[in-house]
Amino acid sequence: MIFRCFLSGVAGAALLGLAAGPSAAETLAIRGATVFDATGAEPRTADVVVRDGRILAVGQGIAIPADARTIDAAGKALLPGFFDVHTHWTPNGQPAAAPAIATAYVQAGVTTVNDFHQPPEAFEPRRRWESQLATPHVNLTARMSTPGGHGADWADTATTKWVNSPDAARKAVRDLLPYQPDLIKAFVDGWRYGLSADNTSMDVGTLSALVDEAHKAGLKVVTHTVTVARGREAAQAKVDIIVHSLQDRPIDPETVAMLKAAGVAYAPTLAVYEPVKPGQAPPSDPDSPRARQQRAKFDYALQNVKALHDAGVLVALGTDAGMPGTPHGVSTLREMELLVQAGLTPRQALMAGTAHSALAMGLEKDRGTIAPGMRADLVLIDGAPWRDISDTRKVERVFIDGREVVGPGVALPPANSVMTMPALPAQKLIDDFEGAPGRTRLDTLRVQDTDGGVDRSTLVSLVAPEVGGGHALRLAARMSIKESPHAGVILPLSRGSVEPVDASAFQGLSFRGRGDGGEYLVMVRTVAGWWVKPVLAGQEWSEVRVAFADLAPIPGWRSPSAGFEPTELLEIEFGGGRAPGELLWLEIDDVEFF
After folding, report:
1. Fewest beta carbons less than 10 Å away: which of 378, 468, 480, 553?
2. Is pLDDT at 1 greater than 80 in this prediction?
3. How many Cβ atoms sit within 10 Å of the Cβ of residue 62?
4. What are the E-state strand segments in 365-457?
5. DSSP reduced 3-state for 37
6. pLDDT at 203
7. Environment class of residue 515 by beta-carbon count within 10 Å: exposed (0-12), middle (13-18) or buried (19+)?
8. Which tens digits make up the pLDDT trace of 145-194?
9. pLDDT tops 70 at residue 560
10. Closest to 447 in 3D by CA, of 377, 499, 497, 380
11. Mean per-residue pLDDT over the chain, rounded
12. Is 42 exposed, middle or buried (0-12, 13-18, 19+ CB in 10 A)?
């Protein structure tokens, strides 16, 4: 009954670096490693000295500071930390919380990622959370799509901004700047991998305006683009990185030339498209239309990344990790193996996963190579991955900003084992709709919630004056033509629904409401999942009380296994469903705990 999978994942981070690691940054000397520095030089035996989180010196016979901690790395390979420019910090068969995801990445030697999954309202609290962890540097990404387009067909407008004209795109970019995004992702095509019609793609004019406005603000733009034709349009708009494979047909020389001339980098996310992923069983019917389509797309993806690489297009590394069958951390390593399967050499795959991803992100002067002055994000490997790319899996030590986060005897910070932020004390008043426009009395952004898909219920919610003074929230919705349509409004209990709230001092929720006389749903999300209580609301105002003890888990939607826990609340939603095509209206006021 709830379709907001985007905001239900507790995850995220920021481009802060490792603000709190298992030990303070120190002077460090890594002695005798075979250094693959990702500058194009041959791997060579050298010492690397690190001070204050930066590489101080690289070479043989260099002076080792007297205060340096020394690591004997003879026979080991030292590489720049790996990049993943396309991840979603979200549940998919893995723990959803940021600490578990951060740990998976650092243990794989991944030291910089882009997270495409967080609403801008969550950026600030997630940055605070990640500052306590051993974590990669994480770039938080603002998202834009067309109304009903891919990325907007299952996310609210607080997570994915909807734009369909150049002016709308420019305004959306400007509106996002106060949140300090690290980059912007645009969903360009609505092809949905051939599963439904392409009737929601972003036009070139809108995309070009989006890119231009973002570049004025110093922000990179990456695009979800999966067809050759849309790849040409991405080149016309001069996007920075295409973060998926062009996979509907072999790429033609003209499109290759356009991408190269526009300076577009390419991160093919082969790991998410691999038809049978590591550990998976093959399909029961390998000749089904879906299985054949998956194999055909993957074959095109392999061919096209090789063609683009051979033509001189910059290949970066992205995985779409967090999507089904694409686990965090190890998928980054798998992506390099798949680049080799596509025809790149192991050295070329390593360059994609280090220096070339840094270059694509505009970070080449800060990280991605092992050279004096660069950030000391390093991975020590027991092997020679420039000969056998699978040796990337033999990670022994990982350093982020000069701090060792993985290695013999190294313990991760306690925060990496705590899956939620500390709970805030609940405030009695949640919203009386008399505060700042669009925000609750807790200074959180109200979020509209409807069913997902191409055809969605249409919802209008607004704060309007009441007869006799004051204001109330009004909801009016037309149900989509599908099974179990839904519409509602969410009141987050903390900004971005990141920090849980402890309401154990209270017994439940109360509000004043009136409606069309039908059944409505009061829903509460906790860290463990969603809970619900059906209520009735007639056309006259009345007080409604929902005791915590009366809430039941929502079947099939991250259903909690234990009883309701009032110490970890995240959101409250008011809404409901009606028959397909029918109308729903509801007014609420004075929402508080009792």
Report:
1. 468
2. no
3. 13
4. 378-381, 395-400, 403-406, 424-425, 429-431, 447-450
5. coil
6. 95
7. buried
8. 998 888 887 778 899 999 999 999 999 999 999 999 999 999 998 776 76
9. no
10. 497
11. 92
12. exposed
- The pair phi, psi for residue 126, each rounded to 5°, is -70, -35
Residue 397: name the closest of 101, 157, 50 by CA: 50
> Taking the CB of residue 283, how many other CB atoms lie within 10 A of it?
15
- The token duo for 407 is 């290695």
Q: Which residues contact 393 (CB under 8 A, 6 or more apart)?
A: 330, 333
Report the C-alpha gap between 283 and 302 in whole angstroms.
Answer: 20
Residue type, 589: D
Give yes or no for a contact between 80 and 423, defined as CB atoms under 8 angstroms apart: no
Two structure tokens written together for 506 = 């209270």
Average pLDDT over residues 108-124: 97
Question: Helix crossing, 228-237 with 204-216: angle to 10°?
Answer: 40
Beta strands in 417-507 (DSSP E): 424-425, 429-431, 447-450, 458-465, 471-478, 487-492, 501-502
Give the span between the Cα atoms of 432 and 251, in whole angstroms. Answer: 56
At 21, is the pLDDT very low, low, confident or very high (cuts 50, 70, 90)?
very low
| Of the candidate ranges 274-278, 293-297, 525-529, the one whose mean pLDDT is the lowest | 525-529
What's residue 260's pLDDT?
98
Residue 12's pLDDT is what? 31
**Residue 94, class by beta-carbon neighbours within 10 Å (0-12 exposed, 13-18 middle, 19+ buried)?**
middle
How far apart, in whole angstroms, are the C-alpha atoms of residue 211 and residue 215?
A: 6
pLDDT at 154: 75
How far, rounded to the nearest angstrom, does the alpha carbon of residue 463 sit from its chain's CA centroid? 31
Rg (CA), the chain: 25
d(CA 28, CA 102): 24
Q: Is the CB of residue 156 less than 8 Å from the CB of residue 449? A: yes
Neighbours of 284 (CB within 10 A): 7
Q: Determine the average pLDDT of the residues in 302-323.
A: 97
The residues, any chain, with a CB within 8 Å of residue 189's CB and separated by 6 or more, are 150, 198, 201, 202, 224, 225, 226, 227, 230
**pTM listed for this prediction:** 0.93
Let me know: does 224 contact 186? Beta carbons within 8 Å. Answer: yes
Specify the length of the chain in residues: 594
For residue 575, is pLDDT > 90?
A: yes
Cα 404 to Cα 414: distance, rounded to the nearest angstrom: 15
Q: Which amino acid is at 221?
A: V
| Continuous segment of H or E residues that includes residue 295 | helix 289-310
